[in-house]
Specification:
Blueprint: H1 3-25, H2 53-80, H3 87-112, H4 122-132, H5 135-147, E1 155-161, E2 166-172, E3 182-189, H6 196-199, H7 203-212, H8 216-224
Antiparallel strand pairs: 1-2, 1-3
Amino acid sequence: MNRRQAIFAGSALAATSLLKAGENSINVKRSYGAKHKVKVLKFDPKTLRGISQKVIVSHHDNNYAGAVKKLNLIQKQIVSLPLSAHPIELGALKKEELIALNSKLYHELYFDNLGGSGKVSPIMNKLLSQGFGSYEAWKNDFVKTGKSLGGGSGWVILSYIKEENVLINQIAGDHSDSVATGIPLLVMDMYEHSYHMDYGVKAGKYIDAFMDNINWKEVTLRSEAI
């Protein structure tokens, strides 16, 4: 083997190794698997302050679990569509799929960032102070954003926008509204099923209770994963 052949052989071997490494590092699940499962709560519902066990259990077992069930059903319908199906028929299912998927994901983020002391972590205090001037300024913005949805529906999300390197408190008016590349750090559900049994139309009292139960450790872990 001459030098040129040796170089070519070495390059081919390196390319093969890289390809294998890439194959091993990328492992996605089958699309439309329709096997989404309901995640269990990471906290005891009885331990929350100001949000009753009844509300949390109903919210988790009915609204969240219902979204998971609906997502599985929609994906089964998509898979069962014949190749001759009209694009409008597929498009309608795609819209329903997005709503159900985001409802599932937002609910999981919401429940996971509950169950804490409500005391902001040093890391998040620093980040929020950098972004909003102070933790209190951020809190005022977040709480008022939530109150603007009282009696209505939607989500309030503290998101990190990587392209802009900024934190924002955004409204997701329904399950399909969100900043395109926003990374959710903290999620608050403002649909009435989150608080009506406890507070009726007094959404502000629910927001206060939510703030007192934030699991800032979870929020910090999300920020560190960016």
